[in-house]
Amino acid sequence: MSYFTYKESRLSAENIDLAGLVKSISTPFYCYSLSSLQDKYKTLSSSYKNDNLLICYSIKANSNQSIIKCFSDLGSGADVVSIGELKRALKAKIPNKKIVFSGVGKTTEEINYALEKDILMFNVESLDELKHLSVLAKNQGKKAPTAIRINPNIAAGGNAKISTGKTEDKFGISWEDAIDIYNIADSLEGIEIKGIDIHIGSQINDLDPFSKSFECILDIIKELESRNFNIDIIDIGGGIGIDYKDEGKNLNIDEYFELVQEKLGDLGKTIIIEPGRYLTAESGVLVTEIIYVKKESNKNFVIVDAGMNDFIRPTLYGAEHKILPVIENTRSNSLEPYDIVGPICETGDLFFKNLPLDNPKKGDLLALLSVGAYGSVLSSNYNSRPTISEVLVKDHQSELIRDKIEIDEIVKRDKIPDWL
Ligand code: LLP
After folding, report:
1. Which residues pair with 399 in a beta bridge?
2. Which residues contact ligand 1 via a Cβ below 6 A?
3. Tens digits of per-residue pLDDT, 248-303?
4. 345 is catalytic
5. With the C-alpha atoms ordered 67, 71, 73, 77, is the resulting torsion angle positive or negative?
């Protein structure tokens, strides 16, 4: 169910009128529905029928601490990829023993901090990293709980830019080298082997690549156990796709978990999943105002106040996000196609091509849907534009959960040296 619905032709987030919010919050802004976020988490956690599942919310999808707190309150752990995400997770009350640390480039500072915080597991992505982790753990008189991330050489994901499981991708250690790496890990003093990890890509709406990747790690687990390695945790990563275009072609969660259960569920191990998009995407909208309407002999444009710096998915991945008028109108009862573009000086600053609209006007509001994942986190200050606000809504309540970072604050960070 969607928590963004029309009430008397006005789009609302739960019981908050989005056009009403504009009176106190300047556009553009992100708006999230807490009930929607909670529903997503509960659907996921209740769809797996075994009790050995740990959901580690992948914070990169949306790292606002209120969003993280929403999931930690429901029992979630976290998948982090930087010291910043780790700090945010801890501040939002994710227990340290529910945090896994992924990423190909963990720095000394990041590893040391995570070791001090006694996190659940490091998902190691190279031999170099493994050795470095061992040294740093030894220095702290500890053993680092470790999983090896396996690269299964499987193509998956909504776009080549977000596929991570092929040999040519930088992620993980080739399945062919897995046993060798575990042998080395076993010989290193600062390493405690805990588990195995895999993550093949994002926005995956087909069970087949998941199935192949589970089989790949199952083979490795069997081989490891025949050699007396202890694998307590199987981390199967994120990647669950969503239905951006309302096509009904998205992954069926029950079928996904049936597959998990069938392939890996009865091995007596903890299963970790690292969903990001599934938990957050559909719970957020981006509200933007029309600055100008430009009608030309052969092309119509609507220029809005949000730009690719605020929301880059369409530019970066050619992603299509539905766009709705915040207040429905029937000004002329006829629809014409408009390209919805931002103010940035790049042709790629385009949110939607040929959106049918009824006589849009300067000052009208539009909402981009399903922007709760990889939206605000990917924003930048390109063209010296501010970082926009984020609002959380619950029933009749709304609250700013990130203040706009005003442009003067950004401008004053630059320094001009005396000698210039
Ligand atoms: N675990 C790891 C190790 C990851 O690298 C990712 C995402 C996830 C979990 C969460 O994946 P999800 O459940 O969200 O698919 N910016 C792109 C997506 C990049 C995904 C990066 N890694 C987009 O907007 O589509």
Report:
1. 392
2. 58, 60-61, 79, 102, 162, 199, 202-203, 237-240, 274-278, 313, 317, 373-374
3. 989 999 999 999 999 999 999 999 999 999 999 999 999 999 999 999 999 999 99
4. yes
5. negative
